[in-house]
# Entry
Amino acid sequence: DAIDKAQIRCSQDIFNQLFPLLQDLPHEEFWALFLNRANKIIAQIKISQGGTDGTVVDTRLILKLALDKLASGIAICHNHPSGNRTPSENDIKITKKIKTACLAVDIAFLDHVIIAGNDYYSFADENIL
# Structure
């Protein structure tokens, strides 16, 4: 349960949680962390898996999972196998889409973290949320 799960306080916490799963993958994977009111992880789910330069993300699926789990917050994360941490146009679009969807159902959207090699990019840290 959530009691022994990690708490998400910043982008580094999201990175630490998902880096072990994403660090050496040759393809992109998109993950979501579903959080309770205390920002403790209640579920960590792979949303999609793609090719070397992209993966398809279904906003409705993320929202459905969040509602099913009664999540109070969501953080999303994916990797860039290229090692380039700069978000693509598509990364920016999907971030806006998910943020808007979360607002509609009163779920906090904490961050979108892109893991690239041993480094990461955080939309929250860069103030683009």
In short: The two ends are 29 Å apart (CA to CA). Strands lie at 29-35, 41-49, 73-79, 108-116, 119-122.
